[in-house]
Amino acid sequence: MASADSVARGGRDMVPAMDRPETLWAPWRMEYIRQKKREDGCIFCAFPSRDTRREDLVLAVQPHAFVCLNRYPFASCHVLVCPRAHVATMDALAPDAFDATMHLVRETVTRLRGVLSADGFNVGMNLGSAAGAGIAEHMHGHVVPRWFGDTNFMPVLADVRVMPEYLDQTYAHLLPAFADLDQAS
Description:
A 5-stranded antiparallel β-sheet has the order 1-2-3-5-4. By secondary structure, the chain is of the alpha+beta class. It is globular. It has one domain: HIT-like (HIT family, subunit A), CATH 3.30.428.10. It is built from 7 helices and 5 strands. It has helices spanning 4-8, 30-34, 43-46, 53-56, 95-116, 154-158, 167-178, and strands at 58-61, 65-69, 79-83, 120-125, 141-146. Helix 5 (95-116) packs across helix 7 (167-178).
């Protein structure tokens, strides 16, 4: 029978040492955990017009849409394509803005394929909080380059993603591929 002390510790001493999960420290995640959860206003509305494009990881701005790196990526070089209009759903987006956004999604895949030699892409949208959208009030598309063998055991065993490059380096690497798409004034 488990002792009261063992139960207070969650019964961990009853599990053989080799079966206990190891602790993987990820102190850089505190930036995300402690950050103010929302800026005043919408970050996707603010990004295209701010003078902090490198800090915001914005790669290209067009009249109806823009491309930026995902600050909390699922995989290396994960980018977002966002309409400039503040809408939550595709049907709320004006037809010309929708067409321009989808064209930019296609161009983004083309540019990333050229500069990264990706074997494939995950392309999609999470529309609404229930679908997993982190910023549900401003629709945006995800473009995630994939390579054979790019997944590993870390997400399964430790709920950790391994990124092979810092975001600043990824930004510098991708920016030239988007330079001719940029129409920001």
